[in-house]
């Protein structure tokens, strides 16, 4: 979901104190690009997001029996948030939060007002301390450069006894896409995925009492390179730098390299899915 032939691997990472101002500006620029890319993708997201939906299902299988206040963090067009509302009923307050206004417009249009739709950044949640029982998040936090702040915010808004169920992606995600687009003079651009150890350490530093982190490979197949790229770009995982251009020769080369990986079911795309279960 988040690799492109354009140089993408420039997501700002956490900075040491003397660089904080520069890092804040970089992070603001990054957030703007992420929000625009996902807003553009919003109208066709639901149609293209079969891989994301399959990965969300594994998260929903772990839901606690009861919850009175729930956040879907990085809710996209709102399918999971609407599902949480249906699952926990009228007495449960469900919030869907996303950085991309276009995603929230789509969520409102499709699922209406039973869910409260909020525009905001996962690293600075516009929510009160200890106000939620459950935070669910599917495939959003890999877009956040500051993992420590995101997990600290999730911890802050959870009540004692609260839980977070988070799906994110680990290194090795989209390895086939990386291989196909790699070029001696222009490495393929992948988000810098963080590994399980980094997530565990950040969750403990955020103050979670119980930290469980599992990694599995989720594999999907597509008929051709165009379908692979549509499955990535179609869900908004595209934050190209201005000026990045692809030639026909680049496309032909990538198609040849991907074809060499073909399996009976089609062209494979691997996601290394990390599921975090955190308790306060
Ligand atoms: C791949 S989509 C996943 C959407 C949805 N959770 C799903 O399962 O289909 C990632 C979402 O994360 C949102 N996102 C990215 N960075 C974010 C941030 N810093 N704060 C909140 N949402 C963010 C994007 O706007 C996008 O809607």
Automatic annotation (TrEMBL):
It comes from the Bacteria. SUPFAM superfamilies: S-adenosyl-L-methionine-dependent methyltransferases (SSF53335). GO terms for biological process: methylation. Its EC number is 2.1.1.197. One of its GO terms (molecular function) is methyltransferase activity. It is an enzyme of class 2 (transferase). Keywords: Biotin biosynthesis, Methyltransferase, S-adenosyl-L-methionine, Transferase. Pathway: Cofactor biosynthesis; biotin biosynthesis. It catalyses: malonyl-[ACP] + S-adenosyl-L-methionine = malonyl-[ACP] methyl ester + S-adenosyl-L-homocysteine. CDD domains: AdoMet_MTases (cd02440). HAMAP family: BioC (MF_00835). Pfam families: Methyltransf_11. The lineage of its organism: Bacteria, Pseudomonadati, Pseudomonadota, Gammaproteobacteria, Oceanospirillales. Belongs to the methyltransferase superfamily. Converts the free carboxyl group of a malonyl-thioester to its methyl ester by transfer of a methyl group from S-adenosyl-L-methionine (SAM). It allows to synthesize pimeloyl-ACP via the fatty acid synthetic pathway. PANTHER family: TRANS-ACONITATE 2-METHYLTRANSFERASE, TRANS-ACONITATE 2-METHYLTRANSFERASE-RELATED. This is Malonyl-[acyl-carrier protein] O-methyltransferase. Residues 71-166 form the Methyltransferase type domain.
